[in-house]
Amino acid sequence: MTVDLLAANAAFYAAFNAGDISAMDALWARSAPVACVHPNWNALEGREQVMESWRGILGNAEQPRVFVGAESAHELGDVGYVLCREIVAGSALATTNIFALEDGEWRIVHHHTSPVAI
Fold it and tell me: Is the pLDDT confidence value at 101 over 70?
């Protein structure tokens, strides 16, 4: 299952880098409550707010690519999380992506990214 969790995390970054809002929308949970903290943003709660933020980010033609590495996945029953490092426009970010099993698929319930010292 950890492989599936890492695959779900990879799909998140593939959707992000492709600017694909439909793929991004499909990755977020529909039953579980969701939240998101983008770098330097206030916390967003609820699917409507979270997806509105992604529409704005992915709709920005100037949005730089996100390079991800150092992923480690951890499962806790029907919940799992991936810790990773993002590099965006030369800046290092620490990230936690939390997933829940929904209809047999890992769906994102929380994305939190914050700057770190290199």
Answer: yes
Helix, strand or coil for residue 89? coil
- pLDDT of 118 higher than 80: no
Q: Whole-angstrom Cα distance, residue 101 to residue 103? A: 7
DSSP β-ladder status, 105-115 and 91-102: antiparallel
Contact between residue 2 and residue 82 where contact means Cβ atoms under 8 Å apart: no
Q: Are 95 and 86 in contact (CB under 8 A)?
A: yes
Does this model's pTM top 0.85? yes
Q: Is 75 exposed, middle or buried (0-12, 13-18, 19+ CB in 10 A)?
A: middle
